[in-house]
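Data card: per-record layout.
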Amino acid sequence: LLYNIKIRKRADRELKITNFELKNKKDELETIIQESPNPMLLHEEGGNILMINRAWSNSSGFSIKDTPTIEDWIIKTRDNQDVVDYMRKHINLLYEITETLDEGEFSFFNKNRELVTWKVSSAPLGLINGKRTIITSAMDITELKHNEKILIQQSRLASIGEMLDNIAHQWRQPLSAISTASTGVLVEKEAGILSSDDLISSMNSINDATQYLSSTIDYFRNFLVSSDEKKVISFENTIGKTIKILSSKFKNREINVVTNIDNISYPCIENEMIQVIMNLLSNSQDALEKVDYKKYIFIDIYTDDNNIILKVKDNAGGIPEKIISKVFEPYVTTKHESQGTGIGLYMIEEIITKNLNGTIEVKNKDFNYDGISYKGAEFTIILDS
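The structure for this 385-residue chain is written out next.
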């Protein structure tokens, strides 16, 4: 009997120690959650919210009194019933996860009806009071998304400015031809030496120039308003379109474009691909302004190990080593501050990584062409074929 009493007392002591340790661990967990700088939420199977930390309340405006259940949270932060229904199903599936789940970006309305965007992840926390429990943490990226929109707007404005500049270069020669022909007709008429053949020749010249101007307008309009839907493009055709847009500038600056393009098709939004290639070609063109030898831009496209490789290289001497590792960061420019905005390459990387699921890198490369040694920047884009 004494032996059983001793065993019972020891078991009671061990149980008290275990409960004390569990309480300490629970207190530690609650402290960690409450003191976290990121929004955090603890909820259990069935939808009851066990804890909302201060960062969550500060960012969303809602406390656990406002939203005691996940159902309350969903209804108060969403306006669209379809989204509400989807979120209910999504939350129920969370209780089945066995490891951390990156749920992506979610936008919702805070208590002041302002749109907030969080990057959210959830992880299983085990059983609490016999119910599966999930801890959800978030990062408030509202300001980041706002800044991203500003960058996109700046990029679009820069693209429009670049396009207008290209149109001006395309128009300069035909406008000059029209001016020359019309002035010549007037001079010959005043001098009394205008023949029918000269008049017809001048009128034909003016008509040819105006037809070219008209086709140029159509071409650029089609580029600016073309669909944002994905379609299968031919790289050969898309590169050809891009070079045509820049052809007048290349001709005026005596830039030679050397292409080596395999017959490859790829599903994408063509305008995005044109924007990527045009920006790379424009960067090479600007870099070549300073050289006094024969100027080249090389475009190579081929497949390698189920990847599509697109390379754009010039012989302008390369990018300064102190900034080459930062060229894809916003507001870093390889040009003079008065010429570059520093968002072109940043937007290129955004398009390639987020929309095309590819990668882009740059390095300075020494190479030989036609028996002459050159150095230049080489941009390499890798896409899944």
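Known properties of this structure: The radius of gyration is 32 Å. The longest strand covers residues 115-128.

See the next section for split statistics.
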